[in-house]
Amino acid sequence: MFIREKKNKSGSVSIQILSKENGRNVLLKTMGSATKRPEIEALKLQAQHYMDELKHQPSLLMTEQDEQIVKTIQTLSNSDVSMAGPELIFGRIYDWIGFNQIKNDLFRHLVLARLTFPLSKLKTVSYLERYQGVQLEISAIYRFLDQLEDKYKEQLEQISFMHTKRMLDNQIHIVFYDMTTLHFETEDEDDLRRTGFSKVGKHTHPQIYLGLLVGQQGYPIAYDIYEGKSYEGNTLIPFIERIRQKFNLHKPVVVADSGLLSKHNLIHLETLGYPYIIGARIKSENEQLKQAMLAYYPYNDNQIIELDKEGKRLIVHYSHERAYRDADNRRKGLERLEKRIRTGQLTKGHLNKRGYNKYLRLQGELSIEIDYEKFIQDKRWDGLKGYITNTTLPPKELLAHYGQLWQIERAFRISKTDLRIRPIYHRLEHRIRAHIALVFAAYSISKTLETVLKKEHSTLSLKRASEITQTMYQVDIMLPDLKQKQKILLGMDKEQQELLAICQKYF
């Protein structure tokens, strides 16, 4: 280190401390400036004292540039640091899909919060204030939820439909429909949340049905909500017709699981001119059809059996993989029955056809035993799955279409786990409906992100991408000359850079 006198244009002299680094002089500190020699010498003496201190405390060695950076950082407060990831990633997709046509900032905040931190509405208020700098009263959120469905559901479905159409090259020839049960942690009922027959065994909780319609690859089209006493099969026709008329759809192939299989539904679909592929309950068919299927036992892997059922095609497919799963499930079911018999938990009341109880029989007047012969005979059904259709599609193409039904089932899994749609802790019907609208929009965004991640062969999962958005921050720094704040995105690691680059490429 050394001291330098630097003459200024004003005639004064600045006293500076410099060091030699890599062949160039680096300014460490300017002690001040003066015009008179005694003052200049006094500054030089101060500089010498400062240099002596630096020799004993090297940590004090800091350039003016470093000092300026430190001073700038010291002016920052926690409120100047905000989470940028949700807007950078999910907000970008939100706009690209077209949800920004819904002119309400609160809708945007709640949907993005749903994707990043799926919390209760009260905790969402805290999240928005802490991480997004958005200050809201919980009462404002509830007022918004009270009007959300009435004001925005039609627009939400319209945007989702147009987005799905764009993602599928303007072709919506096949639609997939399914329902799930939503239950509520409350003992009260209203017209919507009636205690019904749940698919998850929670008969004591008020519940509703959520019907979801998606296109190929799982892109969402529309949803509807039904009261808990509704029979699943009665929802299909009104829902499909509403959507077809709303969006002027040419009648698409309707794909649904066996829960929607009823003679009434099939007749109604045909009368309205819909082609369909519906999961069949092959074990419930008449004896003649069952014997026709079992006549092919033992089956070859991927064997296809085609039969006539009242003028409709009954396609039955066998796979070794499915047979292994079915056999494993039957074995586990049998073991549970054996355990319950040993512990005396089974009574005459359990003699029914539900589940694996079909393997029970009465020995004498009171004793319950397992019909092992029936269990062994059921092996012939392992690996078989049936489909009823009025189309002329080749069996392999038909199987491929039905195989996409898992996309909608996966949509419900996302809704119920990653996006936590069930259970719902809202007491009023309109808030339940509003909650589902938010989840529907969030699913559209997550599905779109998942598509481009796969397209780019990224190793990032949807869950990991959501976690990454929570680690992307920005700071608001006051620019002294402009006297205004500027947002500066903090440096990113490899995963953050990858995620942002993919989103910037596609959206």
TrEMBL record:
Transmembrane residue ranges: none
InterPro entries, per this entry? IS1634_transpos, RNaseH-like_sf, Transposase_11
Q: What is any one GO biological process for this UniProt entry? A: DNA transposition
Kindly list any coiled-coil regions of this protein. Answer: none
Q: Which residues form the Transposase IS4-like domain?
A: 174-444
Q: Which Pfam families match?
A: DDE_Tnp_1
Q: Name one GO molecular function term.
A: transposase activity
Protein name per the record: IS1634 family transposase
